[in-house]
Design brief:
This protein has 370 residues and is an alpha/beta fold. The protein has 2 domains: 180 residues, Rossmann fold; 174 residues, 3-Layer(aba) Sandwich (Rossmann fold). 40% of the residues lie in helices and 16% in strands. It contains 15 helices and 12 strands. Strands 9-8-7-10-11-12 form a 6-stranded parallel beta sheet, sandwiched between helices. A 4-stranded parallel beta sheet has the order 3-4-5-6, with helices on both faces. A two-stranded parallel ribbon has the order 1-2. Strand 11, helix 12 and strand 12 form a beta-alpha-beta unit. Helix 3 crosses helix 4. The longest helix has 16 residues. It is globular and about 65 Å long. The two termini are 14 Å apart.
């Protein structure tokens, strides 16, 4: 998205919680990156009020486990407010995270925008605190139709301020990275299955392990690889060992450039329990790779089941059964890949500058997509 902005028309500051991460080097030079700050030790010593406030928040957070949105609200209060005033302030990480509260409470802007990446029904969107904050925003941008509809179910009277804007991809850059990225070099000649995901319950990598175990039990010679890192690595390693999948299921960790693996795999599987508009399946689609995805939000906006990909229930048995079916029907897979290459997987040509101009000027759209 940042690469698509016209910097002759917009000045952009990007606020982050930490100045690190594998994508920091890809931020355009025109963007000013700033780290959000908390109270310094000096401030706490000079201003007892700050020290008391911080101590009270920390005590409240640690006294007993709070609902995640309330934790995020309180954590935002530990960060210093932004003094500068903007035309537009965007909470890009939403629906129920610290930025959603911080942008509303600690930033000054003529218009504030909530960028929704997940189904509200699965992300505490019906919690009174979250609903109240969502309603405060001037504009709500949903990354797919499913997320858009989930917002309207909870906010039926706020249709006029909501729209759909699909996640953008830099397809040419992605294809160049695929040429330069690492590929599988283990000499395996059977089908290679790939998943790119955080090691997090939401992404369902444990379902992939279960599905792989079922495939191996059925006598399938497959290898399943996962690019990504996360808090569930230890549990997944134990599950892989318990299922006897050493040498069959591989956690490759974070990969700065996973596109070589994506280009080199035989089948891409996304076993997520919840998504907004899944970027990795969209990337696989653009590289004309056959994709099996669980029936999460956005899946049916990316794929026509059985025509440009396959959509299955969020279940390890269903995933394994569909993988077996795909492996047994190479002619069908070839036809799917041909459709993707012939134009069924074009990158979205939406204009981020048009959307930003509309938001900046306070214009409202009478249609859900922009």
């Amino acid at each position: 998205m940042l690469r698509r902005i016209d910097y002759s028309r917009f000045r952009v500051d990007l606020y982050v919680e930490q100045l690190d991460g594998e994508l920091m080097g890809e931020i355009p030079a025109q963007v000013t990156v700033r780290a959000l700050e908390s109270y310094s030790r000096k401030q706490l010593l000079i201003h007892p009020l700050f020290a008391g406030k911080k101590a009270a928040i920390l005590w409240y957070l640690h006294r007993k486990k709070r609902p995640f949105p309330r934790q995020c609200l309180l954590y935002g209060k530990l960060l210093l407010p932004i003094r500068e005033r903007y035309d537009v302030a965007v909470s890009y990480h939403a629906p129920n995270t610290t930025p959603m509260f911080y942008v509303m409470d600690r930033m000054r802007a003529d218009r504030k925008v909530l960028w929704l990446h997940g189904d509200l029904a699965k992300n505490a969107g019906d919690m009174p605190l979250v609903k109240a904050y969502h309603s405060k925003y001037d504009k709500v941008v949903a990354v797919c139709g499913g997320v858009y509809e989930s917002f309207l179910k909870l906010h039926p009277d706020e249709r006029e301020k909501a729209c759909i804007f699909y996640n953008l991809l830099d397809a040419p850059a992605m294809r160049e990275k695929a040429k330069a990225g690492p590929v599988f070099g283990d000499g395996f000649s059977g089908p290679r299955i790939l998943t790119i995901a955080r090691l997090d319950p939401q992404k369902g990598v444990d379902l992939a392990v279960e599905a792989c175990a079922k495939l191996v039990s059925a006598g399938r010679e497959v290898r399943w690889y996962v690019c990504g890192e996360g808090d569930c690595r230890l549990e997944l390693e134990e599950q892989i060992a318990e299922k006897g999948l050493g040498g069959r299921f591989f956690l490759l960790g974070d990969q700065e450039n996973p596109y070589g693996y994506l280009q080199d795999c035989d089948l891409y599987v996304q076993p997520s329990r919840t998504e907004g508009y899944c970027t990795t399946t969209n990337e696989a689609r653009l590289l004309a790779k056959p994709v099996i995805t669980t029936d999460v939000s956005g899946a049916r906006e990316q794929f026509e089941d059985g025509v440009t990909g396959w959509i299955v229930p969020i279940d390890a048995d269903a995933i394994a059964e569909k993988v077996e079916w795909v492996l047994d029907h190479p002619d069908v897979v070839k036809a799917v890949v041909t459709r993707l290459r012939q134009g069924g997987a074009e990158a979205d040509a939406a204009d981020i500058n048009l959307l930003l101009e509309m938001i900046k000027n306070g214009d409202q759209s009478d249609r859900p997509g922009v």
